[in-house]
Prior knowledge:
The chain is α/β, with parallel strands linked by helices.
Amino acid sequence: MAKNRKTQLGFGAMRLPQTDKNNPTTINMDEFTQMIDYYMNQGFNYFDTSYAYHNEKSENAIKEALVKRYPRESYQIADKIPTWLLQKEEDNQRLVNIMLKRLGIEYFDVLLIHNINKSFIKIAEKAKTFQYLTKAKEKGIAKKIGFSYHDKADLLEEILEKYHENIDIVQLQLNYLDWEDQRVQSKKCHEICVKYGIDITVMEPVKGGTLVNIPEKIKKQFNSNNKNLAGEALKSAASQDNVITVLSGMSNLQQMKENCEALKNFTTLNEKDTLFLNHMANEIRKSVAIPCSYCNYCVKECPQNIPIPEYFNLYNTEKMYHLNANLALYGTTASSHAPASNCIECGNCNKYCTQQLNIPELLKKVVEMFE
Ligand code: SF4
Ligand code: SF4
């Protein structure tokens, strides 16, 4: 790893504290405000949100807790245009107007197209969203422009070959577990961004908590080497070239404190640290049955109301720990939502999956285990 500049911790606003854990719109504003104050005091200032996070309430929460309380020049906001809502060219400006209004700001520091993959690139191109971004930058609506990306390296290469001259930032899923993963291809995607000289904002550095919720025997190896699970994952992502920001979707003040600590006076990981993480990645890979990042993007698309990530989480937990409580929890969730066997294999969810999973096939494994 060769690092050429300082990386900052970004505050991802997709997993904010909630007063009701089953209702994403119930953002706990008191705790969120405390987290913001702590974060800003530590010298960080990058907030990442989207039109969609917290069922469209994340932007407004940022307005109340940050925009109304801090001078505009003291923080940066990155926001994302919801690609799936683009039907025609005029929708770009219409959605951006809504986003600016919800945030109570006049410009974005970073404006991104959300979740570019093989399905959504067609929508963005049809709505001329890449061209819109360039115009938005010229007009001062955005200081930097780009897209968040969830697909394989060959498509990223095609997109950047076409648009790299106008793209400042790609938001990329990058962590030590996905570095060599054949589905996510973090390493290859990273190399392509470096080749085109594009800055990278890292998302999912702890893979939605997967790199923290690991089996005890692997945790012990981190502890005996005096390494913090989340801290090492953040530092590993921050050590890569062209990475300017590592986002973390923090849900409480404790996580915030640990993450600030990890990146505040961070030094690039050395070869020994990297070898250790590669070894841990192999161990973790053996224990994670379904590599879901728990982003929830698929949930709203399911006509059967199947709580897909919750079932994948239960499945992974059961594979690791074999607890009776998992079966009981499955029963409760299935009765309040729908059992996995209600899947009609329509495939809607697959189009949104940020981890390229074949969801209906994996749900069959959930059915086998719990039903
Ligand atoms: S394939 Fe199954 S899980 Fe996916 S959207 Fe359709 S019914 Fe829901
Ligand atoms: S199945 Fe895919 S889209 Fe759904 S939560 Fe997991 S990673 Fe996200």
